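Need tokens for this chain, all 352 residues.
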Amino acid sequence: MSSPCPKEARWDPSRVMGSNCLFNLVTGMRGVGKTYAMKKIAVKRYIERGEAWVYMRYNEVMVKNILRSPNPFLGDLVVNEEFPDYTFKNEGPRMYVAQKSKHLKWELFGSIVPLIAFDSYKGTTAPTTTLMVLDEFIKEKEKRNVPYPPGVVSAFYNIHETFDRREGRVKFVGLANTANIVNPFFQAWRIKPIPKGTGKKFPVGKTKVYYENAWTEAYEAWARSSELGALTFGTEYDDYAVGNEFTGQTGLFVAPRPKQSRCDTCIVWEGSRFGVWVARNYMEIHIDDKPARDVGSIVLTREDMMPNYLMIERANPYLKWLVKAYQFGQMTFRNDVVRETFLEMLSMCGLK
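Here are the structure tokens for all 352 residues:
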């Protein structure tokens, strides 16, 4: 039996909480303590300052699974005696805390809510809420066939405005395992993977979003010393769960743009722009995120449609040609992010 993981090996949330950014994203190895750390912070902020929090998952099913679990949502804090003078309980989605005494006085300090139910919270007031956590904002590779909620980033803007009222009071922290580099928040905010254990502020609009790739050397050593670590060593699962590598960071088909190639068109999909560069009589195709300025733009959805763009069907021969080019190994990409994002689009056009 492996020894318990030492507390000092877990992730330290101090950098994200001190980022001076209202909007923050954290990805990292499985089990390093991302959710646990945010639970501790939420409880401590309420005990010390009376500040409440909101814990979110994408939909009602995810929230119900948490509430139906035989293990209380905050039960791990109790087991580890993080707050020995306090006890916790859930009544449905509401979280309560009470100081231990003969007469418990339960105080509401948080709620578990589905992000897509933002309409249900319009008109409510939450002046004491100062923290909002969205857990598992990246879907695992095995769940990619289950789509993200439509307009999920816009839904997030709506629910954050409901609780924050544009006062800059509610700090948002999105948490996820280091899974798929193609996800709505990375795409919307142009977040790119960074080295494990580091943090970086990305300019978004007229502000900045802090992104941290959570990792500790001590936790990696402990995780790989376990029986599961020994069993999965050298596998793709080990790279993802412990090595902090996104599933799309392979370098496959990544190459410089061919010399003497020309930009054939620009494809716009979910706000991303792709330049289709061709060479050698259309037998060599390169995709990057820097299309030429003098080419026309085509789109697949009405959400991307703009004046002077051309909307085409997913069964259009041009898209089928691109699918075949990839299948025949005639397509290269500027980087992993471009490849994974573009292939997500081609998967809607028949790519298996």
